[in-house]
Specification:
Layout (H helix, E strand, L loop, with lengths): L10 H5 L5 H12 L3 E3 L2 E3 L3 H20 L31
Antiparallel strand pairs: 1-2
Length: about 100
């Protein structure tokens, strides 16, 4: 494991464990539209990809702890920590996924 998240993982399948496909696609579509403000959240064309990298980073951290019995430090807010299965809460980018 290096400094980059494990991009061989199917992150969308992992996200679908807690969020509906419809919700994930709506977040992706909003990000694809480009720069803007989604309620109080600033969005760029890279927002969805960055959120997916954050999910991968957290999953890598969990893998380090459980599989390699090593402590981990992930410098990213847990993606989706304010989101429900089919909706987000109005706080920051991490709420989207």
């Amino acid at each position: 494991m290096g400094l980059n998240p494990d991009t061989s993982r199917n992150v969308i399948k992992e996200i679908e464990r807690v969020h509906s496909t419809k919700y994930i696609e709506s977040v992706r579509a909003y990000s694809t539209r480009g720069w803007g403000c989604f309620e109080s959240t600033q969005i760029s064309p890279q927002s969805f990809e960055v959120a997916c990298f954050a999910v991968n980073a957290w999953l890598d951290g969990v893998d380090n702890v459980w599989q390699m019995v090593r402590p981990s430090f992930v410098l990213a807010r847990p993606p989706g920590h304010h989101a429900l299965a089919d909706e987000r809460k109005k706080l920051d980018l991490a709420i989207l996924i």
